[in-house]
Amino acid sequence: MSVVPDAEIEISAFSWVPPFARGQVRDLRVRWALEEVGLPYRVRLLNAMEERPADYFDEQPWGQVPIYNEGDIHLFESGAILIHIGEKDERLLPREASERARAIAWMIAALNSMDPQVGALTDIDTFDPDAEWARLRRPAVVERLAMRLSRLSDSLGEKDWLEDRFTIGDLMMVATLRGVTDAALLDAHPNLAAYVARGEARPAFQRALVAQFANFVSEPA
Hints:
It is built from nine helices and four strands, in the order E-H-E-H-E-E-H-H-H-H-H-H-H. By secondary structure, the chain is α+β, with helices and mostly antiparallel strands.
């Protein structure tokens, strides 16, 4: 595990979230990337149930997690943080220009083309499953997500990863697909289900997941 109290790199995370959110909070993406390249980090824990400290909004305008501090480098948004970590180590971001560009493109595709569709279904299934508006809205949301998953399945084909090897594009895409609340949507595409399973089987992911869960207290303060 790369969590070291005096590490130069600092990220923020929550000390408690409801059970359904555990393993999904976005500091996991940054932890995973750091574990992939063996960079130690320390964690600044926030209480998700309380107003953020005033100075935290200087680091993250919306009070979200994670933030990333490393010397004079201060970042927010998991995508920007992953690019920065990838720049440190070609195991996450290839140095050859065309391969690097493709890895970044896939990462942005996960955030822009997949995540909003996944999030729309998550909001319905998690927060408003019994609402009348949700019952009426859900079929259209499922249809749009199913279409995006079908196109992604076609692009992945029989490959292990979206390009020739694992990159920040795969890390972000797997992290996004893990949030699909209707398992049947992924099961409809065996190659995508296997793709997510490969990502979750990576030792770095497992270490990141354990580290995130280790920070959760049993009850909110």
